[in-house]
Design goal:
The structure is a homodimer. The first copy, chain A, has about 140 residues and is α+β, with helices and mostly antiparallel strands. Chain A has one domain: Winged helix-like DNA-binding domain superfamily/Winged helix DNA-binding domain (Arc Repressor Mutant, subunit A, Orthogonal Bundle), CATH 1.10.10. Chain A is built from five helices and six strands; from the N terminus they run H-H-E-H-H-E-E-E-E-E-H. In chain A, the strands form two sheets. Chain A has a three-stranded antiparallel beta sheet with strand order 1-3-2. In chain A, strand 4 and strand 5 form a beta hairpin. The longest helix of chain A is centred in the middle third of the chain and has 14 residues. In chain A, about 25% of the residues are buried. Chains A and B meet through strand 5, strand 6 and helix 5 of A and strand 5, strand 6 and helix 5 of B. Strand 6 of chain A pairs antiparallel with strand 6 of chain B. The first copy, chain A, binds a DNA duplex (30 and 30 nucleotides) through helix 2 and helix 4.
DNA sequence: AACATTTTGCAACATAGTTGCAATAGTGTA
DNA sequence: TACACTATTGCAACTATGTTGCAAAATGTT
């Protein structure tokens, strides 16, 4: 894990710092998308709030994570797949929010469908967020 | 307009107050979705910030307006069509955000497509937000 | 190890949204 | 129209979230 994280940082030409390692670790540890507050909880008192904001912004810029829009307007972040590179995200998959456990997942294999736009409208990006019950909650209740 | 607004409030069994009239007016006046700040600008100094928050919440509860999730996580509100009733929204249409003029529109006639969920996931609500260039901006540039 | 460059922490600030409570305005009834 | 009852509003205070400038500390390079 430690090595995987260091490799990822090097590949993105970022210097290896404690906060970056810890924050990336939180994403690999949890398998769902994380809110800023989740990360703050995970890293504990080790790092300043501001550092987390800046680190997340850096990761987004470098294509390591992407943001997810949610209906309740909380900012969520999730790891990008390897195909993402700096400034060129490929996160055209559907995001799923579980109403039960409240976790958010990337449905990597569910591609956002195209829709037919009215005359005059030109689409450049499409976000799709589905909410409901996730597979884990469905299996255990 | 005044009468249309009063009728709408009565139909929702809400008392007719100055702030409710003024805030509804802002939605009928502008044809796009509005952020809290837009409404604050529109009503000026007439009403307290808190009143606007509470009024918007009331309108959402009564099915007069609905919220729109946006990729940059600003809360937007737009008028519901008549088919919406209290606690039972039918806003299953696509929302469009113009990257040029920054306005958000309800594409009432573009229905959110269904997508095939992975095994174990049950979808209950789908939000779709498209960004690009709107018909007005495409026509004038 | 020494230096230049990044990154971090702190303080201060800005914006967004919430809550309790007293004052005010709106509604139905006589 | 006046009254009383209820709903709504404004104020103050508070929490949460996010940003910026600058000095101190850590990182990468030689």
């Amino acid at each position: 894990m430690e090595q995987k994280i260091i490799d990822l940082l090097k590949r993105s030409s970022l210097s290896i710092t404690d906060s970056r390692k810890k924050i990336l670790e939180s994403f690999f540890q949890e398998n769902s998308a994380l809110a800023h507050a989740d990360i703050e909880d995970y890293v504990g008192e080790d790092f300043d709030r501001v550092t987390i904001y800046r680190t997340l912004q850096t990761f987004v810029d470098k294509g390591i994570i992407h943001t997810i829009p949610t209906p309740d307007n909380a900012v969520l972040y999730a790891l990008c797949k390897d195909s993402c590179s700096a400034g060129h995200h490929h996160d055209n998959h559907v995001h799923f929010i579980c109403d039960n456990c409240n976790k958010t997942f990337c449905l990597e294999h569910v591609v956002v469908p195209t829709v037919h736009m009215p005359v005059g409208f030109a689409a450049s990006q499409i976000d799709m967020v589905v909410s409901g019950i996730c597979n884990y909650c469905n299996a255990t209740t």
